[in-house]
Amino acid sequence: MAKLILSMDGLVLKEIQLRKERMSIGRKAHNDIQIDNMAISGEHAAVVTILNDSFLEDLNSTNGTLVNKQPIRKHFLKDGDEIELGKYKMKYLVEAAPAHESSAYEKKAPLRYATSASTAAFGEVAAATTTSPGDGVLSHLPAAAIRLLSGSNAGHHLPLTKTLTTLGRPGQVAVIARRQQGYFLTHVEGAGFPVLNGQPIDTRARRLEDHDLIEIAGVKMEFVLQA
After folding, report:
1. pTM, 2 dp
2. Quick one: pLDDT at residue 122?
């Protein structure tokens, strides 16, 4: 499980476990991680965790968000990354499973995977996949694909063969994750949320059913289970 170590001026203030799929950071009290300082926006940033991957998104904050001293809008977090929000720092750390648990853990939930593989453009929507050494353990899942219904590439199919498939474009990004329980759609980036069967989804992961209709960044698509 990943965690954030919150500190200021070298003094550790809090250790935060990333137990939720989306954790908001900001000055207002409703945030999951509240930092009561005027340099921090009311809703400053958010960390979205899908399986073992975490994404940091700046929510159009006034003073911005830095990772390893570089300004970001959206950033895939890596072990040891240092996040800066004003005078506050948060270190992102990934805790490995204990050695005596690792074998059973991998059989039950093979969630560790290397980042990045191929990226393909589908007109208005870009799709990127993330591979997993444990993909074979999910072989009980029926094959599935995304069929594009609008845009210049209408009719094209995107097989959902990897652990993560990212759909969208800057300003609106979502992820479809292959899990043991099925395929799940989750919002990752942007003020606009994906639309599932005519209704905008929130920050929670939504399990997809055969022929569900999805709209992301103005492009309509259909989730299709394949025999």
Report:
1. 0.53
2. 46
> Tens digit of pLDDT for each residue in 145-177?
999 998 777 888 888 888 778 887 767 778 888
Q: Compute CA distances 179 → 70, 80, 140, whole Å.
A: 33, 26, 10
In the chain, the amino acid numbered 37 is N
Which helix (H) or strand (E) segment holds residue 172: the answer is: strand 172-179
CB atoms within 10 A of CB 184: 18
Rounded to whole angstroms, how far apart are CA atoms 81 and 6?
A: 12
- Cβ contacts of 97 within 8 Å, gap of 6 or more: 105
Residue 227 CB: number of other CB atoms within 10 A?
4
| DSSP codes of every residue in 200-216 | E--SS-EE--TT-EEEE
Contact 187, 104 (CB under 8 A): no
pLDDT, tens only, 62-119: 999 999 999 998 888 999 999 999 999 999 998 765 544 444 433 333 222 223 323 3
Tokens 């400053």, residue? Answer: 44
